[in-house]
Amino acid sequence: MIYLYKKIASITIFIYFLICITSKGEDSINVLFISSFEKNIPATVSLEKGLSKAFKTSSQKENLFFEYMNSQKLQKKSYYFYSDYLKAKYSNIEFDYIICWGFNAIELLTSSRDIFPNAKRVLLEGSKKIVKKELLLESDLIIKSIPDYSSTMEEIFRIKEIKKIIVMGTSDKLGQNRVNILKKIISNFEKNIDVEYLLDKNINEITKKLRIPDDYTIAFYLLMHSDGFGKKMTPYEVSEIICRDSNIPVFSFWDPLFESGIVGGDLINFEVIGEKTGKLIFSEDNKNYKEISPMKTVYDYNSLKKWEIDEDKIPPSATIVNKPPDFFVRYKMQIFIFILTVIFIVIITFLIYRQYLMRKTNKKCLELYEEIQKKNQQLNIISELDPLTGLKNRRAIDKIIKNELDRNSRYGNFMSILLIDVDHFKKINDIYGHNIGDKVLSEISKLLKENVRSTDSISRWGGEEFLIVAANTNLQETMKFSEKIRKKIEEFDFTKAEKITVSIGIAEYRTGETFNKLYERADKALYSAKGKGRNRIEF
Q1: Which segments constitute the GGDEF domain (predicted)?
Q2: What is the rounded CA–CA span in Å between residue 461 and residue 483?
Q3: Model's pTM, two decimal places?
């Protein structure tokens, strides 16, 4: 255990820089909450929620940190190492407040005065005094939550007629203390109530007893930490089993058990404790001792209906969870009929109007459709042609290339591409102007059209470059074909321009090759032709 806490203390030194980033700013306060208990138990979760809620409503920005001692597993002799762990972890943070909840957390803080000496200490006590006077500082704030157990029973007697109470709990010191509190409360009511105590019984004995329905009997749960067969369980888990199998309503003192299936009532609410604690910290009252009431009246709507408890008996200040909105409950049939009527009117109106529009516009739509079809056909043709040369553009040739590659992959046919570039075309534009340059491109395009086969596809690839897809043509045939084109262009008399030549790069398709690879080889061949003096063919 000692080694474990030394290890934790050393590791946390490396992470305090991260904490520092989110720590105290100019107008912020830092608060550390130390709980004696585990992190995820319902009471701890509720108290944290209340603290966070109170701090969010304050005018100051706060940084709230949480630590959980899990005191059932932490021995007293380990406090020294736990205090070292806290000092190491938060060595770079100056806390304004330290809030301690539970006996172990309070004992740790009050017995180790060197932990965060500049912080104001806030000690949360229950109804039993646990803070030793000699260990207190003048600046300490003690907040004592004093539950009103009588109000819980008063609420139960007010909403339900009771002749018998079955009490479930334990006979250990804490359990017997709870039983004595309940006995005293019941005796204060001048009612002839039969009380049966099921202490230290196993879960099967308890549920067997609670399965017997009785309109005038209730069960009261005083916490259990096992199923009675040796298996450890949380009080919440035991409550879930009891409430699930019971045929009579189950009540208790504690709000954290609420969602386990208890009916509700005036309960000890840890969220209220957390919220009131947070507000007291920011209050201007300088008293060192405060008493708060942790009670809150809350009921589950489904439980009220299940046990046929009259909702009118519930006080207006009570919170009823899972309750549907009153308006929809009371007028759901009228709302349903109204919605159906509106939908019916809208549908009829729509159908009439739709029929009217269809009759009026049907002929017009048909004419427009036919016109659009014609325009679309024209646009499709135009969109795939280069406006200057009338050749296919890159968009159109891409489709052809894809189809040729697919066909060659399936049938193993030959295919080559020719990449043609006009030599010194920029010089032609500079000397003769762009109009002549455009005319040269148009005349070259015409020559290409006149000298290719019907199975070949020509496109203007971009600028002064042209791409020819030669289907079913191997490299030797492509070379002859390319030489024919080169000579035709070289021998052609271009109007208002000097002699025009072209360089041609050739690549033959290889099985499994992508077009990008094929084009890359043709492009390299073209650049090779240019590098070797232009007006030539390379492959």
Answers
A1: 413-539
A2: 20
A3: 0.54
